[in-house]
Amino acid sequence: MNEPALFLALVGAGTGLVGAMLGLGGGVFLVPLLTLALGVPIRLAVAASLISVIATASASSTVNLEKGLVNMRLGMALEVATTIGGLAGSIMAALLTQRQLFLIFGATLAVMGAVMALRSRTRNVIADLEVEPGRLGGRIQEADRTYVYRVRRLPLGLVFSLVAGAISGLLGLGGGIIKVPVLNAFCGIPIRVAAATSAFMIGVTAAASAFIYFGRGDVALPMTAAIAVGALPGSLLGAHLSHRVEARSLKILMAFVLLMVGAQMAYKAL
Amino acid sequence: MKATTLRLEKAIEIALSGGVLVSGTLLLAGLASGNQALLRWGVVLLMLTPVARVLVLTVGLLHERDFVFGAISLWILAVLASGIWVSVRL
């Protein structure tokens, strides 16, 4: 592998690692980095990011499934909204100006970040195992204890999943940056389950958009391949690491990422 | 968790691992050799990995006679298929 490819693989590994820990996919770091630091045209950067999100989601889900953290049925219910949003977003990509996109997105993330930070001490789990989790809820094992969680405000989760899908198609993200905080802060899902379920979904969300970009000829092969090759081991490591980190630390890291990316997007728009 | 759901999760895990392994190998070989065809196939297989996972899930759920989630899974598959259809016509 030549030097630029090695550098891109390292970038992919880094974004894959953090992305897999938080259920994000890593597109929020990758698109700004490719466009701002490396001068890659936005559509090529979005396409590379979507492929990298697929790599991160697929690799980290193999670990999360084994650890029983993925809530498949909840993920599927939300995927209905997300895939429609993803498809619409990638087709609409030419209609909105980049400034409008960044401004809306930046503001949304900043609000989410503040909500996550304020709720970092709140737990979404119920210690009483007699409580029925319901059809979409489930159980989670933490340390040596098992907890129950129930899904609340599903319609809100669906609306945000639609928005997350559209943003995914427009900006080359998996949409996890919206889904994880919404699932955790508003829908009653523990952060680890929210991240694992999001990672499970974002591969599908990104794929819905990635085919369109591929068909348009926006996938720059060597660059995209190098990033994806790095993202695969990076995200496997990230998925393993997330089980060793406390839930509160994951929430604080998530809040930090949201505020940082939100501020950066808003700054670019102004 | 139900034994059938665990089996389904295992099947999905295998589909995802297979997709990641094969596409990762093709991409790595393509980067090392500079072969564009290998890179292209690596990317295509990587994009198809989530589709394979939805396909396995759909078949599994219908096999479990979970028709509500089976139908949801079919819907997701249809949306993905429409994306592929649009992409080949672009």
Summarize the structure.
By secondary structure, chain A is mostly helical.
What does this structure look like?
Chain A is mostly helical and 270 residues long. Chain A has one domain (3-269). Helices cover 73% and strands 4% of the residues of chain A. Chain A has helices at 3-22, 27-37, 42-66, 72-92, 98-118, 154-171, 176-185, 191-216, 221-242, 247-269, and strands at residues 138-142, 145-149. Chain A has a two-stranded antiparallel sheet with strand order 1-2. Chain B is an all-alpha fold. Chain B has one domain (3-89). In chain B, 91% of the residues lie in helices and 0% in strands. In chain B, helix 1 (3-33) packs antiparallel against helix 2 and helix 2 packs antiparallel against helix 3. The chains are: A mainly alpha (270), B mainly alpha (90). The interface between A and B is large, with 46 and 48 residues.
Q: Key features?
A:
heterodimer, A: 270 residues, mainly alpha, two-stranded antiparallel ribbon, 73% helix, 4% strand, globular, B: 90 residues
Walk me through the topology.
The complex is a heterodimer of chains A (270) and B (90).
Chain A: H1 3-22, H2 27-37, H3 42-66, H4 72-92, H5 98-118, E1 138-142, E2 145-149, H6 154-171, H7 176-185, H8 191-216, H9 221-242, H10 247-269
Antiparallel strand pairs in A: 1-2
Helix pairs in contact in A: 1-3, 1-9, 2-3, 3-8, 3-9, 4-6, 4-8, 5-7, 5-10, 6-7, 7-8
Chain B: H1 3-33, H2 36-63, H3 67-89
